[in-house]
Design a protein that fits this description.
151 residues, alpha+beta, Thiol Ester Dehydrase, Chain A, 6-stranded antiparallel sheet, 36% strand
Length: 151
């Protein structure tokens, strides 16, 4: 798969339909950066008329997972990926359009280097932050991913 916002959003339509129907969309993908946006609507809100925490989690996880999927393709190896743990902090009600971003820096590259060199499972923590249109941090998610080389 080519990693472009269009292709990734098409992927969510077929493979992650709840992400698609809740309005989560990849808007930007680079080597170590991914941006996903979601707009607060009636279909993705909680009873308090703000963005449901699980929708925020889907958007945040997508920013981290897409970067790992891209690294797997780049490595030309068969690698299994799975979320092992996650942490979340909610600092403001999510209303309007929220942008989730992950800046992976060298974390993913280092994990893949260790994975290939040691042939042992690796874990890494990636952070995604949700920011509203006024520039306020709405939520911060951390995901611990585990990577395993497959035969």
């Amino acid at each position: 798969m080519t990693f472009s916002p269009f292709r990734l959003n098409l992927f969510t339509f077929f493979k992650l339909p709840s992400v698609w129907w809740c309005g989560v969309r990849v808007t930007k993908i680079e080597d170590a950066f991914c941006e996903v946006k979601v707009k607060h609507h009636w279909i993705n809100q909680n009873p308090f008329k703000s963005l449901f925490w699980a929708v925020q989690g889907m958007a945040a996880e997508l920013t981290t997972g897409v970067l790992i999927m891209q690294a797997i393709k780049k490595s030309n190896r068969k690698v299994s990926m799975l979320v092992l743990n996650n942490r979340a902090n909610f600092s403001k009600k999510g209303r309007g359009k929220i942008s989730f971003t992950c800046h992976a820096e060298k974390l993913i590259d280092n994990a893949f280097e260790q994975l290939i060199a040691s042939q042992q499972p690796q874990t890494l923590w990636l952070t995604s932050q949700g920011i509203d249109q006024q520039g306020n941090v709405v939520s911060t998610f951390e995901f611990e991913w585990t990577l395993l080389l497959k035969n």
